[in-house]
Write a structure and sequence with these properties.
The chain is an all-alpha fold and 166 residues long. It has a domain of 116 residues. It has 7 helices and no strands. The longest helix has 35 residues. 11% of the residues are buried.
Length: 166
């Protein structure tokens, strides 16, 4: 099980935004003409121009991770989601700050707080999943369940302090 931190959540959201950009879209095409394109030069008429590079599609694993990351956004409010997603799309912070009329430092603090909300929710889900696995596989007694619960709660605290100090 991974311990979710602000940096891990931010990188997964950036990956999700990049994956979403690679997916083919069903955007409206605007005006459509069924006539052939106009040839402006002789070399274009015979197919001598450079071919378009093939579009890379994301792998199924990348799409699955994108779906997971997009589900995380349900824990935030609408304005919070917009700020987090603009950062994930790598919109310059100066533009985001102008849009929300706030300073860069305040925007960074808000973005960090929103990522911590997501990380805390993910860590909570990991703890519950770990407790369920242990309870079902070991048929643990209440005393061992309590010991495991204390160990899972202590892990993030110990890691934040840089290890156990004696």
């Amino acid at each position: 099980m991974t311990v979710w931190t602000m940096k891990v959540v931010a990188s997964r959201l950036e990956e999700a935004a990049a994956t979403l950009r690679l997916l083919p879209g069903d955007s409206p095409r605007g005006y459509v003409s069924f006539w052939p394109d106009v040839v402006h030069a002789k070399k274009d008429a015979y197919g001598c121009n450079d071919p378009d590079p093939p579009r890379l599609l994301p792998s199924p694993a990348e799409i699955t991770r994108m779906d997971e990351a997009l589900e995380w956004l349900q824990w935030l409010e609408r304005d919070q989601v917009q700020i987090v997603w603009l950062h994930a799309e790598k919109v310059p912070r100066k533009i985001i700050c102008a849009q929300y009329r706030t300073s860069r430092w305040t925007m960074w603090r808000k973005w960090s707080a929103y990522l911590l909300i997501i990380a805390n929710q993910l860590n909570k889900a990991n703890r519950k999943l770990l407790q369920q696995r242990v309870a079902t596989t070991l048929h643990a007694t209440p005393a061992t369940e309590f010991a495991i619960f204390q160990a899972t709660i202590a892990e993030p605290h110990v890691q934040a302090m840089g290890g156990v100090r004696g």
